[in-house]
Here is the input.
Amino acid sequence: MSDSLAPLRTHPAFQVVADTLAAYVGIERDVVQFMEFISLCAGRMVMPINLDILSDNVTVDLHVANRLLDLRSCHIARVDTHREFRALERSKFLIEPPRPRQGDSDESLSQHPCSVVLLRGNHRILHRDITEYTARLLQSDEALPSIWRVSDLASSLPPVPSTLRIQTTQTGRDLRRFGSSFAVHRTDPSATTLAERIDSLPTRPDIKCHFRHRFQEHGPPELMMIVERVLCVLSVIRESLLNSSAKPREVLIEDYAAGRSLLTSLPLTPIDRQLSPNALITAEQLHKRLESPGVGIELPDLSQYGQRL
Here is the structure.
């Protein structure tokens, strides 16, 4: 049986980042946390990848997401209302530094470009509105963050289709270490390694791809934009690991194979499906039960009556 994740596992970005990321987060590595890391990097590079994480373990996924965001704590915004988001947008997604302390450097006192906006609360239209407001490209020095939402409830109005909706109940994850990892505060040297790797990424990179014509017409345009951004992040991380000074940067076949492997292995939910994780779990259990021998309901043969009611 072929391993659909083999191209991703052999990619330098996954080989170097995945184990370090799992050590920092405190649970076994999986595609969901790796995709969150890719999205965080994409926000740093001003080419956002929005995530809508529909969770069957919302406590787990909120803790994991916030721990990942702590890698760039000064570059993260958490909003609850339209007013808070509009204020952030008016500031060109630049976050004010915390109150200065004696001995702080000038760099720590400057505004920080926002990498991710985490939406909190189950608002009816806030998620949709924010993904509409940020559906643009910037030519200036403004930031443009990835938008994250983590919930066990589907939005009343879904986000724009350029959002990856990840249904965690449909992927296998090993969460046995969650309790011990998140019970108390702990420090891990891998945090510094990951933070430095993200900080070293370029903004608005110009990425070439000489075989783009072979795949760019094989999906909806909004999905292909996500594919292109995932490929850019993977190629930039690969080049940074290899200390490559090649200019211009270029997407290689191994980047495409890894990106395709990651995106096709993610448990994605269609944008028009409004089922919550709990509804899917119930449906899967009912289907599994009805498929068991001797459980199905046998209907009587009424063919002799033709079309009569």
Observations:
- The longest strand covers residues 146-151.
- The chain has one domain: 6-98+107-286.
